[in-house]
## 1
Amino acid sequence: MKLITRLASVALSAFVALPALSQEYSVYGDSLIGHITPCGWLREFLHRQQTGLTGHPEALSYPYNTCLWAGEIERTYESKEAKDWWRYEQTAYYTDGLLRLGYLLGDEELIKKGEDGISYTIREASPNGRLGNKKIESLWPMAVYFRAMKASYDVTHNPQIPAALEKNYLSLTVNDLVYGRRHIVNLEGLLWTYGQTRNPRLLQMAEEAYAKGGFELDAKACASDDMIRMHGVTYSEMMKIPLYLYAYTGKKDYLELALNAQRKMERDHMLPDGVQTSAEFTAGNDIDIAHETCDVTDYTWALGCFLAVTGDARWADRIEKAIFNAGPGAVTKDFGALQYFSCVNQVIATGSSDNNEYRRGKTWMQYRPVHETECCAGNVHRFMPNFASRLWMRGRDNALVCALYSPSEVSVEIDGAACHVSEETAYPFDGRIEFTFHTSRPVAFPFVFRIPEWCGKSEVTVNGKRWKRVLRAGTFVEMNRRFRSGDRVVVTLEMEPEVKMVEGQGVYVQRGPLLFARAIAAKVEEDTTVYPNMSGKRSGNAAFQCLSMTPAEPWNYGVERSRLTKENISVAVDRGRLSVGYPYDPHGVPVKISIPVRRVKWDLLNGTLNPPLPEPGTAQPISGEERIELVPYGSTTLRLTVFPVVE
Ligand SMILES: [Zn+2]
């Protein structure tokens, strides 16, 4: 009886068969968005997006308060430097985020807004099939907008979408795809369309365009061992292109190019919160350099491609690290304001605190609903909906893959049987993950889940009995079983605090996929200054304010490396808060870590800028040892994450 009630509560349409893998060389498919229901803290995060900036484009100002892609966006409010394609790039980011959010939460208003743009874009195609605004030459906005169209297709299976995309790509020449900033990124959509239509001309165009090279991260740049200094977003967008080529051709050379490009990004530019330096160019692994909020979204979008194509668990670990830390760390917890640049250490966030070389002293590190350059204010809507869209994937032989962990439910049809799995967990704040299966009849399929790379000790039980299989950290594990209603699989991942070193810079603490930071109490004031660089743009909703945050307590802490022993680090888990409340709220965090520190001589740069970490060996202690509490990085706005080492 219970099962019938449970199944009846899920929309019947959710039980469509697992979609076929259209990329024949891909291990997993990533198109289960229409089958996934986010729950728990993840649902609350998405809900805050809905009631926050994503649902309030008037607060974001231009170009988000326009018709978006359901018409022509007037060119207003833009600075002299603004490019003609900006407003379409930015609104393409925004549409992808709001449409996915709409589908994940079942919000008809958001869905309609996203779908209206897609209908208009298809209806208003040029006679030769070209999609997108006819007055702009750049093909880059369409490379982004394709993702909104794909999200729509994954839910609606509207045949007009691949048909319109096919005509669009066939209207282009190979040279169109190569010459023009980020035009090559269109290969992502072009190859997806090839997967749907099997028109051999599309695959031929993609291979020819990529072989021509000459764009910023071409095959030669991917293959070399040299450090790449380039625009962070462009790096993420382009490193996955050869991976898509591999997914449709099986040519290993393409795979190697993508893996090498990503390897170099991680080797040369990675920050502890899981996203590369990008201000806006990659700039080494100096923790004083920020990343652009766009990079949280674009890097994890690229990693999702690595995950689906290779089926390698390490990509899921990396996605989680960036999404659980860097993402929420760049927004206020009500999703009412975002930073353009965010830093792992940021002890001040005002209209003049940006310490990066680029736009130094300007508003770019401030939490604001409106930014001078609008890309991040569009891209910020995508990172969590994209993540939620990929929690569950399908694999070969009817496999159901729990690719990324978070509270959620998934409903699919497997071998003619309706199958609903609920994943109850407070992950990433806790390592216990409980899966309960409801099926319309017993059905055999491989259930695939992950033992993360950071996890030293794990255990799996099936209906209360220990599952005796070797569980290797950093791998996906396959459980082959005839699943019956009421079956329960519990995965327990031990989370121990770890002290990590950033070579030649400082130390930080993490536990499982979460980074921990000292949240610095701030004096928060509304900043009503109308900055000349904003071209008059202001939030169109008084509830969404530009904030000025200055430190209201000491933040100048350093650590003695020898004192950071296991015995000196204590973890406090408030089990009540794991299941109630919102773990990213500063006052609701369920896990705290306490460490010994000493205050050191360390001041703001020039009195107003976010200060760089003291050079190694120069942090002079000015007080004795005391203990401070660290909280999950994503719950902070002002924070100290990487501590200088007191010699
Ligand atoms: Zn941006």
Note: The pocket of zinc ion is lined by residues 292-294, 375-376, 379 (CB under 6 Å).
## 2
Amino acid sequence: MILANDSAYVIDCGNGVARQLAFAGVPLTIIRHLFITHQHSDHNADYGNLIWLAWATGLNTRVDTWGPPPLEKMTKLFFEMNAYDIDTRISNEGRVPIAPLVHAHEIRDNGAVMADDNVKVTAALVDHPPVVPAFGYRFDARDRSIVISGDTAPSDNVVKLARGADVLVHSVMYPPAIDRLVARVPNADALKESILAHQTSAEDAGRIAEAAGVKTLVLSHLVPADDPQVTERMWIEAAQSRFRGKVIVGRDLLEI
Ligand SMILES: [Zn+2]
């Protein structure tokens, strides 16, 4: 989540995003824009829930949402699926109708997404087979530029998107630990192939950050995130082997 002048710009809505925002001390009523990088459950499972829960706790202002198709259909069907609660709260609690507040915009290509008084947002196609399109986003505010890679294999588009940015948040994997990760599931071969095809090693994330000339690299979406044999120091050293700037290992509720 990026906070600018008391407006929240939320990037991706995985499981529990409303709860995590509450833990971060962010009132759900200040959500102004939502961005979905790609249509995978760990990035969109709580897309509708976040808006719905925000509305049920007092959100009564416009929310624009941005992301790949079928974002418009997902938005419409979500409100349809939850019409009972929504209609009840409107008639019984005097809430404003939720559907007219929410404006979904589908993104299909590179380029400018939106701009307001706080930020200018640009999208770039990233490399996440077979999920197409998948995007990274750049946020240019008055005092800081922040780039979110989304899930991607090493991508020249991320280098271009992140050129000269203050902060690059890049998804990363630790390849030597992938075999241990997939050994726990029956679909190990397919899962391993999928991970290797659409994630970036911490070394490569460092190389991309160096090529883009960013100041700070934040390692995010760690694969695996829960392997005690892969320590914070190992993530940082892998990225720093290719990058001279500052490296931070992203954790829940971390504030930068
Ligand atoms: Zn994904």
Note: The two ends are 11 Å apart (CA to CA).
## 3
Amino acid sequence: MSGHAVVVGAGVFGASVARSLAQRGWHVTLVEQHVPGNVRSASGGDTRLLRAAHGDADWYAVLSRRAREQWLELQERTGRRIWEQVGLAWFARDPEGFESRSRLSFERLGIPHEWLAPDAARDLYPSLRVDDLNGVLYEPEGGVLHARVATQLLVEDCESLGVRLEARRVTPAEPPEADAVVWACGAWLGPLFPDEVELTLSRRDVFFFGGDSGWRRTPGFCDYDGPFYGHGEIAGLGVKIAPDVPGGPVDPDTLDRLPSAEREAEARAYAAYRFPALADAPVVGARVCQYALTGDTHFVVARHPERQDWWLVGGGSGHGFKHGPALGDYVADCVEGTREPEPFHALGPRTGDAGLRTAAVG
Ligand SMILES: Cc1cc2nc3c(=O)[nH]c(=O)nc-3n(C[C@H](O)[C@H](O)[C@H](O)COP(=O)(O)OP(=O)(O)OC[C@H]3O[C@@H](n4cnc5c(N)ncnc54)[C@H](O)[C@@H]3O)c2cc1C
């Protein structure tokens, strides 16, 4: 099956779907209201972590491994740097927690990993507090993506495959004419389809600290029970420390992207606690973005209930970036009818928490 597809939204999800469809011979128009990789979109962040650990959820571990190969292929083919192979460390406080479940998943799936005793993990960073840790799950093949650049590169790759990029805002009231329309609108998806998609938009502040050169290429980290995550010095940005605590509701169009003093204090306190060498480091940068959270942190990939040729794709829930290219193939399979979407990506109420990102709530 092929024909004309319109993909609305040139974030990592939409750009990936557009690329996958174009690779299969579809004529694709990719429509973006701002510009691809704009900082109001979740995909417009400077960096995003790529990890395989997803607790018990093997489906996402497999997707992230497949996507990693595709990101590496894109970097190799284009000669543009989008990937930092720095590894990723999970600070495990609870012996039965997310990290232990992820370790079992890695064993089931044959994903490279190490389980480090707290003292052995000290060597990963210029300084690391370990007295509250049970161990550290280390992913040597995890790392950091240059998210904004990677999104823009995906769009360039789309254009080289003949995808037409169009700058405008599309609405379901004046829908595009096509054989298939994929609405991959990030934080805008819920407001566009209020009867079908329930998303909570939750603000997140990200900080960069001025560490010394010892922080160059140190591993990304997730402290699930903190909840904080970040990475070492990359591309001159500084050491990233991000509190993954619930922020207030946001309107992605009108939000002033200035960091909150309260979140900054939390980031400084965490930096001093976990990485004592950063106790006096200055804040050298900050970003404000938003999560588009589903109730259970599973994504949304579903047909519109009344328009079988429309697909609703989103609910990245704070962990979607890394999966982009592999998610694009999955959605393209669904559009072509060669597979059905997973039941856990369906529309409708979501209960429980699949625990797919670092914070348990909001
Ligand atoms: C602070 C922060 C940290 C994160 N950390 C990580 C991480 O470490 N690892 C990870 O894997 N993920 C992470 N994520 C999540 C990840 O960034 C998102 O899941 C992913 O980028 C979502 O991509 P998207 O394409 O669905 O949405 P977006 O990137 O928001 O893109 C949607 C696009 O659609 C456009 N659009 C919307 N409506 C319309 C319309 N009507 N017409 C035309 N265009 C439209 C928008 O302008 C936008 O460009 C993080 C997110 C945030 C906010």
Note: Residues 58-78 form the longest helix (21 residues).
## 4
Amino acid sequence: MTKTRHAPSTLIIRDIHTIITMDPQSTTLRGGFIYVEGGEIKQVGNRPPAGLRADRTLNARYAVAMPGMINTHHHLCQTLTRACTAAADLELFDWLRTLYPLWGRLEEESMHVAALVGMAELLLSGCTTTTDHHYLFPRGQTKLIDAEIAAARKIGIRFHPTRGSMSRGKSKGGLPPDSEVQSEDEILEDCERLIRKYHDPAPGSMLRIALAPCSPFSVSEELMRQTAIMAERHQVRMHTHLAETRDEQDYCVQHFGKRPLDFLADVGWLGETTWVAHGIHFNRSEVKRLGRAHVGLAHCPSSNMRLGSGIAPALALRRAGSPVGLGVDGSASNDSSHMLAEARQALLLNRLAHGAAAIKTREALHMATVGGAECLGRDDIGSLAAGKRADIALFDLRDVGYSGAEDVAAAIVLCAPTRVETLIVDGHMVVENHELRTVALDPILTRHRRFAAKMVGSLPLL
Ligand SMILES: [Zn+2]
């Protein structure tokens, strides 16, 4: 275990059993190579040119290489309330009402550790970029996003934190308790602070901020409007939960006199810099409208199944023109941060809904990679091609679960999800030999269990 990330300035991964490039031609290579220089992919091909040398060479004749996956929706703090007994069998609104008081105990240190755990789980599942939608700021806790940014830097994941917010508490007709909402001035000031302090718009960026009022039932229309104006001014993206449940739809009709999508459109959010989480309860004309506007979707099949929320029209949205990525959404409504499992879930759920021919294994991987990059507005990640950042996942075909597989590229989503063997983020070796190289995980898990016990009241002793 090393504490510093080893970043060879040049790297060749050669003799790779299968490379799933996810390039526009959907190229698959057998026995090919990937050459990386300074964190950027310089060459991908069948055979390296004679004399090509690198500081480090990996032989990967046992591996399937694919682009590091991109998680487009998450709540990292919820790793502290996984499989919480009181919320185990509830639908969204009751699930939230049960968990809000526990989340009210969140502090900087527990946020930092929760983020490390969620990010570790993501990295070990082959995910190299994640977003987080953090909207909980209990009184006095103003630096929780800073705490998760510190975690991302330590563990070495590409990070798109979104500054979430809640301004409509129970006394104003919202769902969250008043003690967990902030004033709109406070929210907007902190959005501005985070953008100025952390947002890096440059190609290859390891950190970009987006703005993310939580949901129609926890913020005001005015906050949505002001957020859109600020996002435009700073050229950052916007994210929110939308059309997740029928309860939300009923809430919107009752409180705003309109459906969730009309709410979104009327506050100036219907555009290509917006991506929404869930998007389940859209009718046909709404799907077309979203597609025309290129609003992205973070499709979260596990969470939607876990909470019994419904099936998102993800395939119809893609056909209509919306980018569609995947979100593990959690970690208390999944209760996992395994990106490969999410890709498999997307495949299975959409086949259940629309038939086996409706979605190919490659399309599920497309959502987990290229579609996610599009949702986050990035053209430098999501595929293995010259000029892209070196975000690469290698899965080990020697794993028992892949034994006997003929089409090994399809096996990645058809067989049981495994732990990644090697993971490279921006040219850095973050996972080697199935283990994280950037942090020692065991002491983090010990601290995490302690914080979880404090938040929930008790946990079984290990
Ligand atoms: Zn969510």
Note: The chain has a mean pLDDT of 96.
